Amino acid sequence: MAIRFEDIKEFIGSRVLWDDRADLFTAEAAKLIRAKVEERTVLVFPQVNLTDAEQLTITNAMGEKIRLTARNNVQSNDGDVYQVTLDEKINPQPEYVLGTFFWHMDGITVDMPPPFATLLSCRIAPDKGGETEFASTYAAYEGLPNEEKEALEGLKAVHSVRASLSPIADAIPEKHRERVLSIGLVKEHPLVWTHESGRKSMVVGTTADHIIGMNVPAGRAMLIRLQEWAAQPAFSLRHKWTQGDFVIWDNTGAMHRAIPYDKSTGRMMHRTSIAGTEAVAA
């Protein structure tokens, strides 16, 4: 086989191996990689050292490319590649990146299906912190006791950027705090997403503010318990970045977060995204 896969943990994560680097850019590889992302949630390509053009080649081969960028992010490279950094010369409002220190799913508060996958290349790896953690909400749902699965059926949560940034709201300069907190839409999503494939995952993370029909304390307590359940070691994976690493994950079945790091580390990631093909459905 031109490329092959090694499982990292029982329920999440595979490492991608290859003999000839050119084999990563074939149509056959794109099909295998997409299928493996759907199966294993997270794929790690160690020190593959992709250029932006190569990352876009893989992105386009796997599905329709989509831009998920803040309007005020100053790009110094291809506009289709988002630079994830705390460097204010590139990102003058780093609050969006600081918000990634907490469990979330991409694209939950936009008026389109959530992106199928996020693709991230490491250009500068910090010496301390900056790892990315992933938690499979497919595996977490499947691991719930049957009575808890039944209790979740039919429940919906309200999602917003305001909720996701609430842990860092005090760190946002007051002059533009309200504008930052009010970006995106307020969306209602079922707690349990029944995918077209028949598989089910949970839609949780810091964008989830409260559960419709439940009093706020009880609903928020449930949302935190579900996050904690999904983040337990059996269902989660922490990746320690090395320069040149490339990771793809199924955004429709995983939460992710960055371990906090200082902006002086220069951590730099290049991100692309693949459009989703289905809306969140009960």
UniProtKB/TrEMBL annotation:
<protein>
    <submittedName>
        <fullName>Taurine catabolism dioxygenase TauD</fullName>
    </submittedName>
</protein>
<keyword id="KW-0408">Iron</keyword>
<dbReference type="Pfam" id="PF02668">
    <property type="entry name" value="TauD"/>
</dbReference>
<dbReference type="InterPro" id="IPR051178">
    <property type="entry name" value="TfdA_dioxygenase"/>
</dbReference>
<dbReference type="InterPro" id="IPR003819">
    <property type="entry name" value="TauD/TfdA-like"/>
</dbReference>
<dbReference type="GO" id="GO:0016706">
    <property type="term" value="F:2-oxoglutarate-dependent dioxygenase activity"/>
</dbReference>
<feature type="domain" description="TauD/TfdA-like">
    <location>
        <begin position="25"/>
        <end position="272"/>
    </location>
</feature>
<dbReference type="GO" id="GO:0046872">
    <property type="term" value="F:metal ion binding"/>
</dbReference>
<keyword id="KW-0223">Dioxygenase</keyword>
<keyword id="KW-0560">Oxidoreductase</keyword>
<keyword id="KW-0479">Metal-binding</keyword>
<comment type="similarity">
    <text>Belongs to the TfdA dioxygenase family.</text>
</comment>
<dbReference type="InterPro" id="IPR042098">
    <property type="entry name" value="TauD-like_sf"/>
</dbReference>
